[in-house]
Design brief:
By secondary structure, the protein is α/β, with parallel strands linked by helices. The protein is built from seven helices and 16 strands. The strands form four sheets. The protein has an eight-stranded mixed sheet with strand order 1-10-12-11-13-16-14-15, with helices on both faces. A four-stranded antiparallel sheet has the order 5-4-9-6. The protein has a two-stranded antiparallel sheet with strand order 2-3. The radius of gyration is 21 Å and the shape is globular. The two termini are 22 Å apart.
């Protein structure tokens, strides 16, 4: 969809098993169907009703469990009983389901079939990259994610904002700086990207922003770089002057790709921008992080 708007995006491809620094590209996960079926025939946590019902990257299973044994494989949030949690198990072989606590309380006694038709096999991971040239080789860098299915603020807002920024940039007739943007899976994607582009980024990037969770209207968040005084930090602070509900967070409160871009030896002049920062709003990583939010 984004490629239809910005045809200049290209792809970097990484293959399962490929080393990216001291990380390794994992297997590709594909899933056809998943559900829990009570002995009465009633189904719960059906993937085809909501993909959040399945813990992401779950291994294939087809087995019968008593309810008391099934409970340990179900995730829910008591404090938000109507919300389906979003959960993954990327780096641990496991499986599980997610459901609203309200629905969990209604599970009848008896035996349940746990069915997950998934596969883990060698495949590929793609990173989207675009470079809009200016008069100078010096670059402004923007990064966001393509890895949280069905999350509106935590996922969709970043790529949508970057797309709008690119539309604006391309209309500028006399660009001084060049603009590089990437859309990638969080953590493993940025590490892989740095393994290919580190020298170019260190040479050219003068200012950068990790953009995520920028769709709500509760606050503005500046997540500082590790050094705290880069051009990105100063420009974002200036842009937020006069705004209400501005939250300035220390790099010690990091947890997203600003970690990778500020790692020792990488040291890109990049900070994070959000409205409500990830983990700072109650709908985070649940089905309530929807388009209404």
């Amino acid at each position: 969809i984004i490629n239809k708007i910005h045809e200049e995006f290209d792809y970097l491809t990484f293959f399962s098993g490929e080393k990216v620094f001291d990380w390794e590209i994992p297997l590709q996960w594909e899933v056809e169907d998943a559900y829990i079926e009570h002995e009465s025939g009633e189904k719960f946590c059906h993937l085809k009703e909501n993909n959040l019902h399945l813990v992401g990257y779950s291994e294939p299973v087809d087995l019968i469990l008593e309810k008391k044994d099934l409970i340990s494989k179900i995730k829910f949030i008591k404090d938000y009983p109507e919300a389906i949690p979003y959960s993954t198990t990327y780096y641990k072989k496991d499986w599980g389901f997610c459901m609203a606590y309200d629905q969990y309380l209604k599970l009848p006694e008896g035996n349940y079939r746990c069915y997950i038709d998934s596969s883990l096999k060698p495949g590929q991971m793609k990173v989207m990259e675009i470079l809009i040239p200016g008069r100078s080789d010096k670059e402004i860098f923007l990064s966001s994610y393509l890895c949280h299915p069905s999350m509106a603020n935590n996922e969709l807002s970043g790529p949508v904002l970057i797309s709008e920024i690119l539309t604006y940039i391309k209309k500028l007739k006399n660009r001084k700086y060049s603009y590089r943007c990437v859309l990638l899976p969080e953590t493993i994607g940025s590490i892989a990207y740095l393994s290919r582009r580190l020298n170019t980024l260190k040479k050219n990037v003068i200012c950068g922003f990790n953009v995520s969770c920028c769709g709500d209207e509760r606050r503005y968040t500046h997540l500082k770089s590790r050094k705290g005084n880069t051009l990105a930090d100063k420009s974002l602070s200036a842009a937020l002057l006069g705004k209400e509900n501005v939250y300035t967070k220390s790099f010690l409160e990091r947890g997203s790709d600003e970690r990778q871009y500020n790692s020792p030896g990488v040291d890109l002049p990049l900070c994070g921008f959000s409205k409500s920062k990830w983990d700072d709003y109650p709908e985070y990583h649940t089905s309530l992080d929807n388009l209404d939010l």
